[in-house]
Amino acid sequence: MKIFSLLMILFCMSCNLTFRKNDERINALNEMQQTDSDFSNLSREQGFRKAFLEYMEEDAILLRDNNMPIIGADAVEYVSSINDSTFQIEWEPHGGDVSSSGDMGFTYGLYTLKTDSAVQHGSYVTIWRKQEDGKWKYVLDAGTQGLGGMMKE
């Protein structure tokens, strides 16, 4: 009977650790998705360039149409050179996941890019890493064009 009691105590303790770890992972996922939403809000309110530079990790990678991957300092230079006064881009995360350690994950969703003469829709994926200060920064950002009329305005 003592062995059974000991096994039950160990089982309950391991469940508690698992539940706590799952709560931490869910909290990390919620934080990361909120960061993606905040990132979009900053882009809408203060421009693409400011938002992309603020949320970019130092060695981030950008995957853009008709370009090789743009990495680190080249990514900073690429974003810095964009005149964002002629367009507005915003997006909405539709899902994502985080690692079991809660320090790396991804979000994906749909974006809308508006200019004076056109509206373009597409999808995106962003890979995030939690920084030492607890903030999330993206390490890879990629988007695809071409959803056309599939989205509602």
Number of strands: 6
Query: What letter string, H or E per element, gives the SSE order?
Result: HHEEHEEEE
| Integer-rounded radius of gyration | 20 Å
Strand content: 35-45%
Number of helices: 3
- The chain-level mean pLDDT equals 87
Determine the fraction of residues in helical runs and give it as a percent range: 25-40%
How does the overall form come out from the CA principal axes? globular
Alpha-carbon distance between the two ends: 66 Å
Tell me about the largest β-sheet. Answer: 6 strands, mixed
User: Strands of the biggest beta sheet: in what spatial order?
Assistant: 2-1-6-5-4-3
**Low-pLDDT stretches:** 4-8, 10-19
Structural class: alpha+beta
Describe the structure.
- By secondary structure, the protein is an alpha+beta fold.
- α1 runs antiparallel to α2 (48-54).
- The longest helix has 45 residues, at 2-46.
- It has three helices and six strands; from the N terminus they run ααββαββββ.
Defining key terms:
globular, single chain, 153 residues, alpha+beta, 3 helices
Write a brief structural summary.
With 153 residues, the protein is of the alpha+beta class. It has 3 helices and 6 strands; from the N terminus they run ααββαββββ. A 6-stranded mixed sheet has the order 2-1-6-5-4-3, with helices on one face.
Secondary structure layout plus pairing:
Layout: H1 2-46, H2 48-54, E1 56-63, E2 70-71, H3 73-80, E3 87-98, E4 104-115, E5 119-130, E6 136-145
Parallel strand pairs: 1-6
Antiparallel strand pairs: 1-2, 3-4, 4-5, 5-6
